[in-house]
């Protein structure tokens, strides 16, 4: 697993507010008055989003009361239902205490790895107040410059660091970067229609149907995204989503990694350890250990797997080395074709440079189209039910069919000078006419 793994929706998850869960039942004058008071207090425009929400609720209540028959029993929504978000589960993912997490950090030698990099005063911050997403932050006392006294799970460092030799580094470190490992994860029951891959296949099928029937596919952002997906067409998408509907029966309890970042804010990037897309600081080199810990946490509670949607090519590649597989067999075949096509590039230039090539539009297919990285669901199965899915004849049949297509991409490094600095190759000693395209 990567020392720096970023998944989509990370920004929204980090800024998410803990709002009460809406209820379908509405009534009582006190509830109405409570909402009216809240709306009045927000009239100055402090929070337009909440104001809009309250306005909709007020209008809904008003309309409901006007149309309700006088002999009908009203739906009841208590103030507690509407304004109390409920007691949060103090256990991480509903199962693990603070001590459990600490023990697992020891068991998988994550603390040892951090100690080897000079971090010996580890701070564990476990936030389970959000109903959907639980948050785990591992830091060190030397990095904790903010006031964390409000959180009882955070050990507050009382020592004076003003005269430390790292003063300049620490004082310039933004508060949002004062961590070593930052994880946002949620536990959820998935049916086939909940997976991103299924939803995408249905959209691709619709896009090609509209194209055949002369419909307008140019106005939608979603359609513009689909236009950049070259490994599969409408017929292939139909085959895949029908396979999902047939094979993914029932529900699957997964923990989905919404965001994970592992960083060493005290170190700088180097030629041997270049910057990856999305990174602000070098990694900690404990990614595989963290991955093993998360997998074991899933397996020990009988869950079906650990999932993610890797935002960058290097994320998917590193998850792949830990036996994660894409839920979509066609996409797994496509990903393996990418790795085959770029095997020489990976060997000569390294994973960072290749990932930057995707990021900057230097990876192209045989038609000369830019290959845009569009991630799908990538899963490590921990239950026999999900393991059987990946080994099923249906999965293997689709995988082999798309693998035989031999999807091919290449990188012209002579046209990618802005990312040479991320390459393991020393371009300063290369021929000025240097040009390399990868081959199978």
Q: Tell me, rounded to a whole number, the average pLDDT.
A: 81
How big is the Rg? 25 Å
Main beta sheet:
7 strands, mixed
% residues in beta strands: 5-15%
Structural class per helix/strand content?
alpha+beta
N- to C-terminal distance: 25 Å
Region (Disordered): 1-26
Biased composition (Polar residues): 8-26
Protein name: 1137_t:CDS:1
Briefly characterize the structure.
This protein has 440 residues and is α+β, with helices and mostly antiparallel strands. The protein contains 17 helices and nine strands.
Overview of the structural elements:
This protein has 440 residues and is an alpha+beta fold. The protein folds into 3 domains: 19-83, no CATH class; 86-189 and 250-308, no CATH class; 192-249 and 309-429, no CATH class. Helices cover 39% and strands 11% of the residues. The protein has 17 helices and 9 strands. The protein has helices at 10-14, 29-41, 48-67, 79-83, 98-107, 110-116, 167-171, 196-212, 221-227, 234-247, 287-300, 313-320, 329-341, 343-349, 351-359, 384-391, 393-403; strands at 122-127, 134-140, 181-190, 252-262, 305-308, 325-326, 363-365, 378-381, 409-411. The strands form 2 sheets. A 7-stranded mixed β-sheet has the order 1-2-3-4-5-8-6. Helix 11 links the parallel strand 4 (252-262) and strand 5 (305-308). Helix 2 runs antiparallel to helix 3 (48-67). The longest helix has 20 residues, at 48-67. The radius of gyration is 25 Å and the shape is globular. The two termini are 25 Å apart. Residues 8-28, 64-86, 151-171 and 431-440 have low confidence and may be disordered.
